[in-house]
Structure formats: C-alpha cells, structure tokens
Queue: 4 jobs
Job 1
Amino acid sequence: MSRINADKTKYIMKPFLPILAALLTIGTTTTAEQRPIFDAHIHYSHDAVRLVPPEQIANLLREAGVVKALVSSSDDNGTQLLKAAAPDIIVPALRPYRRRGETGTWMHDPSVVDYLEENLAQFEYEAIGEFHAYGDDILTPVVQRMIELARERNLILHLHGDREAVDLIFETWPDARVLWAHSGFDDPAEVTAALDTYPKLWADLAFRSDMVSRGTLDEDWRAAFEAHPDRFMVGTDTYTPERWYYVGPHAEFSRDWIDQLPDTVADGIAYQNAAAMLAKK
C-alpha cells in the first residue's frame, strides 16, 4: 500500500453508503442557529462530474450549510463547472493533476508546468493544490516552478505531505501561505510544533476523526486548537465520487465536536480561519 493510501486508511471515518443515487435525495437539518461551514478540502474530479451534475453538487453544499468550499479537481474542468454553478460558494484551486494516478509522478513530469501555466493564464484561482509531495520532492524543478507560479500570483499552496515538505516549501518561499492537508496526518503535538514555527501555516482536518473519541473531544487536540485557534479548519475530502454522500453528515459531525470548544475557537475552525487565510495576501 502506498503511503498516500496508508495515510487515509489509518484515519478513515465511519463507513458511508457507497451509493451515488443517495445524493439525489439526501437532506440535512441545517438551521439558522447552526454554524456555517467553510469546507477547505473538496474535490470534484472527472469521475464525479460524470455521475453527479454540478447543480446537484451545489444544492448538496447549500443543504449542508457549507457557505464556502475550497474546490480542486482532476482535471480542472470540474472546478470550473462547479464555480459556474455556485460562484457564491466555490473558491477555486488548481491541482497539478490532469487525471487520476498522477499523485506520485507529477513532480517528475515537466509537462505539468505547461498545464499549470495554461490554466493560470485562463482562470482565476485562490490556491494551487491539493498536491502530494513528500520530503525532497519539493526540490524537484517541477515543484520549484509551481511554487514560483504561486509566488507570482500570491496563491495558497495546499500541500498533502510531511513536515519535511512543509519545511522545504518555507525554505523556498518564506512568505508562502501553506494549507497543510489532513494536518499531515500527524499527532496534535507535532502539528502544534509546526504551527509554532510558521505563522503562515494552516492545517485542515480533512479525513480525520481522531479529534473525537466516543463523542468527546480529545484533550490533546483541544490543546492544539486552543494554542492556535486561528489556524485550523475543517474539510470533507471528496476524493472519490461516493465521498460526496458524506458532505452533509460530515458538516454535522464537525459541528458536533466544534461545539465542545469556546465559541470564538469554534467559529474560527468552522469558517473564520479559512476566510482569514484567503484574506492574508
């Protein structure tokens, strides 16, 4: 098993129904009193585009109380379709992938640079990523050029990688804004240490449920959230089409554990931190 798949298997959430037809009937219980959600880790890739139209995806996000979503896709067509369907919700990001199966090879493929440059010239984005890179992958010419492109346009870098990759990005571009996907699948103390080191590092909690045990917020995670109340955010990670079933339940799951924190911390994780990250240009 690759380390990418091993990461997600280690922290997999409760099983969900792998039936795309459910997307057409699913509802939520979102009310005006519930916190809005900024989902900072959404994908709408080519396989999901074939199965669920963008208008339905937009409705699903609205019903879940997701008022903003950082969206990327493989290829970029899904992102553009969804932005057209819900421009008030979608915050577009550009992945360096044109199709599935490139997560471990893209950093060695010079044609990726052409793909990024062409899309950046044609469309507006707030981020590049989510991209997978570990350790000295960051030093490859392709990744270095991608960081340069982000720097030229002041875009967020949404990294799925380890602490070494985080360090090397900031070594390359000290003023980068980096969103660390899945908080690196690291322990809360290690995540806190990274956030202590880099004021412009944020951490999403996509595809993680270890913040909670039997409905109670983990104390180590509580300490991390209170140490850096302005740097964490939630995300669903719809990396396969069936994960779209989980957008509504994930929003409710997030609200349940976030509600165990002080309101100022809870509001930050639910929405405000992601909005502030985008505003720091």
Job 2
Amino acid sequence: MTAVGFGRTRLVLAILAAALLFVSGHAVPAVAEDNSQVPQSREQITLSFAPLVRKAAPAVVNVFSRKTVKERVASPFAADPFFRRFFGDAFPGGVRERVAQSLGSGVILREDGLVVTNHHVIDGADEIRVVLNDRREYKAEVLRSDKHMDLAVLRLLDTGGRKFPTLAIRPSDSLEVGDLVLAIGNPFGVGQTVTSGIVSALARTTVGVNDFNFFIQTDAAVNPGNSGGALIGMDGQLVGINSAIYSRDGGSLGIGFAIPSEMVLTMLHAAEKGGPLLLPWFGAEGEAVTAEMAEAARIDRPAGVIIDTVTVGSPAARAGIQQGDVITEVDGKPVDDPQALKFRLATKPIGGQVSLHVLRGGKARDVAVALEAPPENPPRDTTVMKDATPLQGATAANLNPALAQEKGYADGSGVVLVEVPDGSQAGRLGFAEGDMVVSLNDQRITSVSQLVRALSAAGGRWQIAIRRDGQMRSMSFTR
C-alpha cells in the first residue's frame, strides 16, 4: 500500500470514530500516533558525540603513581608450637618494602600544565607520571592535595614551555537531572575510554567519599581507573571530576559520582595562589530537618538545616544566627542537609558576604554572613608528648577554627590529638588522631600546657576521658 493509501485509511477511520461518538454520545479514547521516524538524511544517520570527544579528549590524561609500602613479614617459625610457647602472638618478624602502583585519570585545566585529579589517586606517592592522550609522558609534582575534598592539583615538569590542551569549566549548578553527559578516563588501565549517560541525580550527600559529600550522580559507566577523569556536558565543558562508584564487585553498576566543578575551581584557585587552602568559616552546625522537626518549627515540608550549636564570636553568631534557626538557602541555592550547607559555603571566596534564607518561629528572613578565613585563635601550641605517660608519642594541639578546618574536625575548643603514630605508646594503648582530651583525673583539660602539667603530676595513675566521634570514653592506666 502506498503512502497515499495510508492517508485515506486514517481519514476513513477518523470519520467512523466521529460518527460513533455522535450516535452513542460517549467519548471515544484518542489513539496515540507513532511519531517515530526513520532517519531521512546522512546527517541524521551519523549523529555522534565524536565532535565533543575530539575537543575534550586531549585534555584528559592518565595518572600513574608509585609509592613504597612497608609491611611486616612473620618469621617462618611463627607457627611452630615450641616457639609460640615463648613468644605467643608477639613472635618477632621482619619488615619488607614493596612498591605499590596506583592508576587514575586527570584533567588539564591550565595550558601551562596544571592537572586536577583525585587525592586518593596520588596519596603518598613517591613518583607521579602523567601520560597525555597523544602518549607524551611527563613527571609531575603535587602543588596541592586535600583528602577532605579528595582533590589534588599537579604540575607537569620539564615541559619546555609547551602549551597544553585544556578543558573549560562550567558551573555544575547549570545541570539538570536528565541532561546528557560524557565520562572520559582510563578504566582498568585499558586506555582512554568514553562512556555516555545522563545526570541521574544532583546534590547527592550520602556517598561518604569525602568530607563535603555533595556529588553529581550519573549512569555513564565509571570504573576503577576513571577516578580523576572528566565528566563533561554537551557543550564540551567540565562539570565534574569522576570520583567514586557504587559497586559490589569493583565494576560499574550504573551509579557513578562526580565532584562538582565549583569545588574543583576552589581547589585550583588555591593551588594557583599558593599558601594554605582556606575556606570560609561559618561557626555554626546543625542537622537535617526531619518531618517531626518541620511540624514543630511550623515549616511546610522537611527541608533545610536546623542549627543546634553556634560558636561564640563566629561569623554566624555575629550575623544573628541562633540555635533553632532553619537555614534553607545559600545565595538562592537550596540546602537540605549539613553536607549541602557545608558545600555551598566552601565554594564561596573569602571576603564579602553570603545571603542565607532563614526560618525562625515560622517566619522567613534573609541574613547576610561575612565570608572570613578561620582564625588561629587560640594558638595551636602543637606539642609532642615525650614523658613516660599513656599519651607518650602522641602530638596534641589546642583546637581552633583553622585547625578544625584543616583536619576536618568539628568546631570547638579544648585539646585534640592531631597525630598518634601506630608504634607509639599512645597508639598501642588505643588513642587515635582526632581524640579530644576532655579530662585527666577529674580535672578538665582546656589547653596543651595544662595537659602536659597534669600528665606529669598524675603520680603513676591516669584516668583519661576523651571524646571520639561524639561519644565519651574513659580509660584508666597505672604505672
């Protein structure tokens, strides 16, 4: 049957349907037309992501790192019952070194050779090599690396002044769920690979990969080796750095996570300026609003962060933020939990102000908060505990906002253990980095100097209370 014949048939069916509707007086369901079309031209047949890949791929690199790892080797006699009678589980053994290699990806963001990748790709590396898309290879040094962001900035060495291809950066806030994206990286070390998918979710805050926990979720296949690679939009610009996957066996299950480009820019600018990485200090903390909290606070729906602690003298306190306030927006961007609030503030430059939308007693208001660097007050007074006490070998410091941000601790005051080596006395007795020393022999500890004096004056008996992960613990020791 010709195309004209199909048209006449549709006309006859439409007339019959109208007649039946007129006679019966009842509505007749409409028949949905099939709007699918066969490609009519060569251009339609050859639609492809190739132009985007051709533009972006040269700026995506492979990152190889090597580091020396020490591991304890048990003596061959360790399982012999005769020797175990004398040594038990503490049987002597040796230590051997081996070279561990790590594979990941990276993105060139500056034509002089600045590369962004994940912190976990180069963590502890003794040697880093970067291989470009055209197989040229360069040694690289770490300019900036931050485990809390899981981002690192590398500089290519001995480039001879060569200029490199780069990717432009676009705000991830411009993305919407359903947008097409491409992931470019080096999965499993097979070579540069491109996968496509969509943005399947935004503002994921329960991934647990870094301390900011604010991710773009995509179903573009992301596998081991893709870490540090590019997630690009349909304009060929970088919207995120691929960082993690949800997996049961190490392979892609269609859920990948990328660090938003706003955080990448924050890290890049810090590396270019030099000096410490400083993020704005807010000075207030809270928790996500639940349905019960929303009802009690007279909020339409569970949304925002309800503040439970405000540090005296902080920017939040000076702006009038109070316990019980609910923060729902930062500069017009919604926040639904503490991770989202932390991310929104972290991507703001120090200096100037940020506008918070706050609900208090069912009434809304906008509050301007200064964007300030965290202060070094009180001074850290970082001290290694050298005397023969339970804390021997540990390094203690006075907690201040700058230290809290640097180490990822919660804001507060008091004495915190910033380093506890595994083989130290403190490490063997169960102390760990991040422990807050609250009291010693029922004496509240407020400074490092006070802690040193109290340890020496204990007379061989130490009752030490610490706070770890929000929980109080008490440990007793005698000489």
Job 3
Amino acid sequence: MLENLCQQPADKILQLMKMFRDDPRADKIDLGVGVYKNAEGVTPVMRAVKAAERQLWKAETTKSYTALAGDPAYLDAMRNLVLADSVAAGRVAAAATPGGTGAIHMVLETVGMANPEATIWLSDPTWPNHPSIINHLGMKMQTYRYFDSEARGVDFAGMIADLEGIKAGDVVLLHGCCHNPTGANLTLPEWQEIADLLQKRGGIPFIDIAYQGFGDGLDQDAAGVRLLAGQMPEMLIAASCSKNFGVYRERAGVALAIAPSEAIRGVVGGNLAHLNRQNFSFPPDHGARLVTMILNDSVLCADWQAELEEVRLGMLAIREQLSAELQRLSGSDRFGFIATHRGMFSRIGATPEQVVTLREKHGIYMVGDSRLNIAGLNETTVPILARALIDVGV
C-alpha cells in the first residue's frame, strides 16, 4: 500500500530555510521565513507571556482536557480581541484550534459541510497555504485581483470587478490586515464597499487575521473585520496568536463563525466541536491559556500591549529607513510603497532571476516572488539590502 504514495512537492519556504542554514557565509541575511525577529535576530518570548507562564506554573493543578471546543474563557477573550462589541456575542460560535492554520482548515471544512458547491475566492496573490489547503480538501477555488505590481498597492478596481462574479453562497477569503505576501492593505471605505458587494451578491466573507497589532494597532487592524461583522448576516474568521503573542510553537488559534441568529449559532458551535473531535479530539491548551491569562489580567494585558506596540513601531521604523535609503541610492521615489505597507511583509518587485542573484551574490534570502520579511532586518542590514537591491537592478 505505502509504495503507492507519491512524493509531495517540497514547501518553497522550508526549502529556503534549509538553503539559508547550509550557507556558510557569516553575513547572510534571512528575509524569507514569516517569523518575527528583533534587531538581534531572535524571536523573543514576550514579557507578559513569561510572567503568565510563571503564574501558571505555580497555580496549575492538572493537565486534563479542557472542553471539546476549547476553554470557554479563551474563546470569549479571543472573540472580544477580534470583534469587540461589533456583533452580539450570542451570534458568535467559536472553537480553539492548533494555530491559525488549524482555524483556516476548520473554517474550510465547515464550509464544505454547509455548502459543498461553494467556491472559495482568494486574493491574487495570497499566502500559499490557502490554495494548498483548499486543493487538499477538494474544494472549488477562484482568484480575484488584489495587487497592482506596478503601483505596489491594492488594485481595488480590479478586485471589485472580479468579485462581481461571485455567486450566492460563495466564500470570499480576505486578509484582515497586513496582507501576506504584499503588505498592501484595504482602507476602511474599501472594506465598506466590499461589505456592500457581498450583501448584494450573497457572498460570505472569510477573514484570515494573523497579524492583529502588527500594522496600525490592535483596534485599527481589526476595523475592517468589525465593520463586516456589524453588517453581514454570516461571517467566518480564522485568528492566530502566533505573531501578536509570539507563541508560535504553542499553536494557539481560534475559528469564529457569526451566525444569523442565536439558534443557528448553537448548531454551528456543535459542528465546530464535532470537527475538533474528528481532527484532533481536544485542542491544545497551554498557549491558549497564556493568552487568556494575559487578556483577562489588566497588568499583564497592559505590558503585552506595550511590548506589541514596540514591535509594531520597530517594524515601521525599519520600513521608513529602507524606503529612504533606497530613495537615496536610486534617486527615485519608486520605493515609497515600502513605508506605506504594513505588517512583516512587502513584495519588493524583484524578478525571480534577481531574487536568485540576491541570494547567490549577496547572501540575501527572500521568497521567489520577492516577498521580504521586514522583521528580518535591523538598522545595520538595511543599507546592505538597499545596496544589493540597486546592484541587481530592482
């Protein structure tokens, strides 16, 4: 039987990680992996997480299972973090998942159970794992225009024109903030126009929000999500704690579903719990419990928000430095988009050949579509990257 299996295609980012590890050059720069790093190149444990872990170590008396859908306190805390008071809590079903990826998988499985004929619409480009999971589940998929590669911003006219083609019951996957891989975000008026279109066409929004707090702030980054939540009869959300709490390896995520009524919400919640049972039984709890402790403790929460703001402002400073340095070296303002993008990523506009040259000649590693991780830079390496980009002709 096992000899009938085919070799699966290698993940390009994981391949890039191996190439970087194997590169003996001491001055190599990793801008490929989508993990936050500080100026020293370390992914730190946040202060509030450390403090919560110390408290948990003293107070925890059991490692028994939590509820099938996860600890209710965690689900409430995450619903409030993402949605605030934009929608009645009684309409929101929730289930804890192994990270944001687990939540995406959970939401897509729920769509498949509710409407097997639904088409999932993805931005072009999007995070590569989105189409990978959809293909794995055997679901229908379409793309809509999103990024203007010349202007390095959102092609909103193209996006709206394409989404006019959705059918009632189709699901439109949107990035809540800090679009991956482009860094180009929708404005609040654009979110409203999308809400109007979805209501007119009968489409259902599915929001992937993995970087809340990394763009313009916790509330600002959730503004589009909350706008839709306050207007749409149905909505699906996958949220991750990996980035904004730094608990990558703890796999803390949540799937949220806004139902038209409290009665339907109960059925949806039962289905989410059922899917947990089929996929992994009970969800992991350690990271989720730390997040809950932080969000429900005023002192821990204030310190977490302060450190998250330091992270956000640090990435903005790197963006502004890189944009200014490239403008100085090129004598052109064509790199101004870097300062206006938000989150960890920007698609820099290098060709695949230029990306290879950056790696081979300069030891600078980025994904083949020229997505670079801003958090992989510091004040010292920004000028190195800028000179390399100009050298290869970007």
Job 4
Amino acid sequence: MGKGRMEFEVQENESIGDCMDRMKKLGFSPIRRIEKPIFQEVINGSQTTYEPVGRKIIFEAKEID
C-alpha cells in the first residue's frame, strides 16, 4: 500500500453502505473493490471437494485531499 492508502473489509454484520460510511468518516474514498471467495473443504469418503460458502469484500481506499 502506498502513502495515504488503506484497506477496509466489509464486516460480517455490516452492509457495503455501512463500510462506505465508515471510510468517509475516517477521511478515505474507495478506489478499488476486491472480492475473495471463501471455500469449505468437504470430505465424502476418499474424495475431497471444496464448496464456496461465502465471500470477503475488501475496498482499497485513498485519503481524501
């Protein structure tokens, strides 16, 4: 991360709008949205599969001038 940049993760019981409001209160503006899938390992006998169970949303933000 460069100078004046920060990452904000959307918390479990928080909407994207709430996260944006939190960013603004701290003096930051979003510049990029990153979504990362969350997988769960499922074992059926000798076969292992991975199923998506959620996602993590992260905003990269820069300081407002």
